[in-house]
Design goal:
Its main location: membrane. The protein has 444 residues and is mainly beta. The chain folds into four domains: 30 residues; 157 residues, Jelly Rolls (Sandwich); 173 residues, Jelly Rolls, CATH 2.60.120; 51 residues, no CATH class. The chain has five helices and 29 strands. Strands 1, 7, 10, 13, 14, 15, 16, 18, 21, 24 and 27 form an eleven-stranded mixed β-sheet that branches. A four-stranded antiparallel β-sheet has the order 6-11-8-9, with no helix packed on it. A hairpin with an 8-residue loop joins strand 28 and strand 29. The N and C termini lie far apart (57 Å). Bound molecules: 2-acetamido-2-deoxy-beta-D-glucopyranose (10 copies). The site of one 2-acetamido-2-deoxy-beta-D-glucopyranose has 3 residues, from loops.
Length: 444
């Protein structure tokens, strides 16, 4: 290659400089984040001023539905600008968003719902049941219950799941008690080492994720957490009860994960902890009050994140109980080294999220806790339709420009939401459904 003239080189140098400056000015969001502002009418992506993330409109990810806005009086009080619009689904029993994914990769999916009386029906406050279903692909994930909920308050749901194909989908299912809607949808790629109990047959739905200590921020997320997990504040939750005998510990020292700990909880989250005065021997974390109607049927898996923050590296040792059952006896946190305790694949048989940390007889100090995650089991039992059959139906739909309300999501699975007119073969249990016949299609 010939060496360019001085003028060209200057030009190239200036271009490089601009590129370098742009990358420095705009903090690069981690690769693979997908941020969807559902129901956005403006066909141009925008950067959220607070989150420093680019949100796009949702048209390329979903087929049916209607775009709406929360009422003007609620716009200022929603948690983020992306909550001001939503897409509702008055038609069809199931409507799905499909997001691109890498087969075999682990993802966190988060859906947020802010009603904001968009339809002027006052559905969250009129005393009626307002509840619809949320599926991850063809498997039930959680229900969204907005009955007696504050009109401008958000409900958020997270699931950690492994993509089995080149897409993941999130479906809203009409339970006959209110029109399903969604305000935003976010996908975050995770590392394989995170949540190692999650695989193609086991997903987990977030029950709660908390950080402890003197934390005034209600939710801590990206950019503090590179994976954009939502960490709630336990002290905010406790309100006036967060006082003596509770003690806050904090450090600005950097923390290190112990070998084998792949959860990647940021130092900034774990640099604060809650303990209790030495006169007391135990800490109780009761999250039972969160229980909704479904809670007692949930199977839960807690993950405790600990590191000793006391500079004198004291003798601190405690037992950990879940709903009265011993989980981890005689645990001692290491100074500035992060331990994440969980029982792999072992879910509690009750949805009672009630934990006691109890000092052992020989310990000189009571327990401490830095962070806690509790997940509910989502069994990925139902399999998606054979991928060649799905591709064939996609082509048929595209070729004939079909917009049938029941033709949304997986063609055969689960059976109660299979596409009208198709015949599917489910005969070999443990095997993926196949399409046997397609109804006659009249060309337009
Ligand atoms: C649409 O977005 C563009 C770019 O962010 C903005 O300049 C424009 O004002 C927006 N239009 C409306 C109607 O909000
Ligand atoms: C919504 O319903 C509640 C309870 O019936 C009522 O107090 C409130 O005024 C209603 N709000 C609107 C905007 O209709
Ligand atoms: C799996 O499919 C069956 C039959 O359609 C359905 O009843 C069940 O709720 C589905 N299971 C999950 C976890 O979604
Ligand atoms: C919590 O932190 C704030 C500063 O962020 C401080 O003013 C307050 O005293 C602390 N409270 C406790 C109980 O440590
Ligand atoms: C951090 O801990 C020190 C005592 O070690 C305390 O004085 C300070 O208030 C704490 N800061 C916060 C934000 O809690
Ligand atoms: C707690 O222990 C201290 C000594 O460490 C003692 O002075 C104090 O009275 C005790 N407080 C209570 C409420 O028992
Ligand atoms: C702490 O210990 C005191 C004295 O034993 C007791 O009265 C109090 O209920 C305990 N507080 C907590 C939060 O455990
Ligand atoms: C730190 O450890 C020392 C030594 O055990 C103890 O005296 C002190 O009370 C501890 N401080 C906190 C905040 O736990
Ligand atoms: C998924 O993990 C569970 C435990 O969490 C295990 O029982 C199951 O065999 C695993 N399935 C696959 C397909 O690896
Ligand atoms: C706490 O530990 C003591 C012994 O160290 C034991 O007697 C007590 O039953 C434990 N409490 C709970 C709630 O587990």
């Amino acid at each position: 290659m010939a060496i360019g003239s001085g003028r060209e080189l200057t030009w190239i140098f200036e271009l490089l400089l601009i590129l370098v400056m742009t990358t420095q000015v705009r903090a690069q969001p981690p690769p693979g984040f997908i941020n969807i502002d559902c129901g956005l009418k403006n066909f141009s992506a925008y950067e959220d001023a607070n989150l420093k993330l680019r949100y796009s409109f949702d048209d390329e990810f979903v087929e049916g539905g209607e775009k709406h806005e929360v009422l003007p009086e609620f716009m200022a009080s929603t948690i983020d600008d992306n909550q001001n619009t939503l897409r509702s689904f008055p038609d069809g029993s199931r409507n799905c968003y499909t997001l691109p994914a890498t087969p075999g990769k682990k993802y966190l999916l988060r859906a947020i719902f802010t009603y904001g009386n968009y339809d002027r029906l006052n559905k969250t406050q009129d005393g009626s049941l307002f509840r619809f279903g949320l599926y991850v692909g063809v498997n039930f994930w959680d229900s969204v219950d907005l009955s007696n909920w504050r009109t401008d308050d958000a409900v958020w749901k997270e699931v950690v799941t492994v993509a089995t194909g080149s897409s993941v989908s999130v479906c809203l299912v009409n339970f006959g008690s209110g029109t399903p809607f969604i305000s935003s949808l976010e996908l975050r790629p995770l590392l394989d080492t995170m949540y190692p109990f999650v695989n193609t047959s086991v997903s987990v739905s977030m029950f709660i994720r908390l950080r402890f200590g003197n934390i005034t921020e209600v939710i801590t997320r990206y950019p503090t957490d590179n994976y954009d997990r939502f960490w709630g504040s336990y002290s905010v939750r406790m309100g006036d009860l967060y006082q003596y005998p509770y003690i806050s510990l904090n450090t600005s020292d950097n923390l290190e994960n112990l070998p084998g700990n792949g959860f990647k909880v940021p130092s900034a989250i774990l640099q604060n902890a809650m303990s209790i005065d030495a006169n007391n021997s135990s800490i109780t974390v009761s999250l039972s009050s969160l229980s909704n109607k479904d809670a007692l049927t949930l199977k839960l898996l807690p993950i405790f994140h600990f590191t000793e923050l006391n500079a004198s590296n004291p003798n601190r040792r405690f037992n950990i109980y879940s709903a009265g059952e011993g989980l981890f006896p005689g645990f001692s946190p290491s100074r500035l080294k992060v331990d994440s305790l969980y029982q792999s694949g072992l879910f509690t048989q009750t949805g009672d999220a009630y934990f006691i940390l109890n000092k052992t007889a020989s310990s000189s100090l009571p327990p401490l806790i830095n962070a806690l995650e509790v997940y509910a089991l989502v069994l990925m039992k139902n399999l998606t339709t054979d991928s060649d059959d799905v591709k064939y139906m996609k082509d048929v739909k595209a070729q004939y420009n079909l917009a049938r309300t029941s033709w949304n999501g997986d063609p055969c699975s689960p059976i109660e939401y299979s596409w009208k007119g198709l015949t599917c073969d489910y005969s070999k249990s443990n095997q993926i459904p196949r399409i046997i016949t397609v109804p006659p299609i009249n060309e337009p």
